[in-house]
Amino acid sequence: MRIVIVGGGIVGAALAAQLLGRAEVVLLEAETQPGLGATSKATGGLRHQFSSPALVQLSLLSIPVYGAMPEAGFRQHGYLFVTADGNRLAAMREAVAMQQGLGVPARLLAPGEIAALVPGIRTDDLIGGTFCPWDGSANPTDALGAFLRRGVDIRLGCRVEGLLSGGGVRTTSGDIPADAVVVASGAWARDLLAAAGVDIPVGAYRRQVFVMTPPAGFPTGIPMTIDQDTGWYVHPERSGLLLFGGTDRDDRPGMEEVVDWDGLPRVLEAGTHRVPALSEAALVRGYAGVRALTPDDLPIVGPVPGRPGLWLSVGWGGHGFMHAPGGARVLADLLLRGTTDLLDASALSLERFSDPHRKGEQTAF
């Protein structure tokens, strides 16, 4: 079986590595280097705390892969979610119960317990939070390189211009016939598929990150901390720098990777409200990337109905790095066996959006 994968980022590379020795695989990347799209902008967060069982299961399949990959630099610093809103805490409580049922050691925290995890965090307005010690982060670029070094046949500078009616793709380097084509090119997938008469409910949204130096004496080793009420997060990097972001989840549609500096005050206001000491943090730089979001915040993984040989691994919503290994295992099963016992694949199918009896699992976080 010959499989062409369109998109040389972490999602496509993980799938190609998963299929090695089981099929003939060709990975196509339009750029002259792999991973210059969303992978290069990923912050590297890895968490099990989701409100969707499918996403928790993808984390359980994926994060151990990075933990066993020395190149990835996996760090298990935990994720902390906090809230001052009763409805959000109720949803978080339900999510923790589900996560625990799947074997994840997430737990609810009282404000005093939150203060012990992040010295200096403001808790007088909080009513609770959640924490999972299994969560952490890794390096997306290094992980991508590790997958490719396993022997993946990647063809750089090979832009896909269309799909062949008999199976395969038309590229700037010529036609490549194949038994199956997997489109794994993130937010760039929609235009390619639309030209082939396939409409997918995936929207492109720009998101930005601000890199900060911590104030003197700021504690190292804190968990990645997310304020559920504003979306703000602080992500500690191995280098000691801090990443701020999260207040622009879906308010900047488009593909242009340009920093909106007018958004910086909102990030700083949310951050210094939650951790006042961060008012002394100094800006180093900002950068922007593009995320592909679906209506229910779940990816689309599986075949395109009515189009034999056409498959999707798109709409990862900023979690492509986090879930690439698990998504690769699920899709490899579907491609080669027609089924999978790793999770309920119907939750990730394109068909869920056209089924009047199934609206998908709308995620709370």
Topology diagram in text:
Blueprint: E1 2-6, H1 10-19, E2 24-29, H2 38-41, E3 45-46, H3 53-67, E4 79-83, H4 86-101, E5 107-109, H5 111-117, E6 128-132, E7 136-137, H6 140-148, E8 154-156, E9 160-163, E10 168-171, E11 174-177, E12 180-183, H7 189-195, E13 203-213, E14 224-227, E15 233-236, E16 242-245, H8 264-274, E17 282-293, E18 300-303, E19 310-314, H9 320-337
Parallel strand pairs: 1-2, 1-12, 2-8, 4-14, 12-19
Antiparallel strand pairs: 3-7, 4-6, 5-6, 9-10, 10-11, 13-16, 13-17, 14-15, 15-16, 18-19
Care to describe what's here?
- By secondary structure, this protein is of the alpha/beta class.
- The protein has two domains: 2-41 and 140-202 and 296-353, FAD/NAD(P)-binding domain (3-Layer(bba) Sandwich); 76-135 and 203-293, D-Amino Acid Oxidase, Chain A, domain 2 (2-Layer Sandwich), CATH 3.30.9.10.
- The chain has nine helices and 19 strands.
- Strand 15 and strand 16 (242-245) form a beta hairpin.
- Helix 1 (10-19) runs parallel beside helix 6 and helix 3 crosses helix 9 (320-337).
